[in-house]
Specification:
Length: 130
């Protein structure tokens, strides 16, 4: 895997947790060779499922040192256009995935995910490997 940045999708965190693994450990190793990226929607999707305040605080500390992609007006216009184009092409995917994909595209990052929807979004690279 190249050294380009990687935006870690919610499905990676959730999949690792469900498998009894610590996603932050795997990502800490990845962070030695490439930048990790996050965005608000990923943080919110993952955080809402964490029940323990201490574990949530640990995740938040980790996210706070990642590159953050903000969703400004220009980003929302890109999301709107991308979703519209995908829909017209008959590729209806969850809006949250379109948002995450557009954030990755803006950051020049691959999306680390277990979710097949990201393969439908033009202009992004997808990986399942850390």
């Amino acid at each position: 895997m190249d050294g380009s940045p990687v935006l870690v999708d919610s499905s990676f965190y959730i999949g690792k947790i469900r498998a009894g693994q610590d996603p932050l450990q795997a990502l800490a190793v990845t962070a030695l060779s490439r930048d990790l990226v996050t965005c608000g929607i990923v943080r919110c999707e993952v955080a809402r499922g964490i029940r323990d305040k201490n574990i949530l605080a640990r995740f938040q500390r980790f996210w706070d040192v990642m590159i953050y992609v903000p969703t400004d007006n220009s980003m929302w216009q890109d999301i709107e256009t991308t979703a519209w184009n995908l829909d017209r092409a008959g590729r209806i995917i969850p809006l949250t995935d379109v948002i995450i994909g557009c954030c990755a595209r803006r950051a020049g990052a691959a999306v680390l995910t277990f979710d097949k929807h990201f393969y439908e979004i033009p202009g992004i690279r997808v990986t399942r490997e850390v």
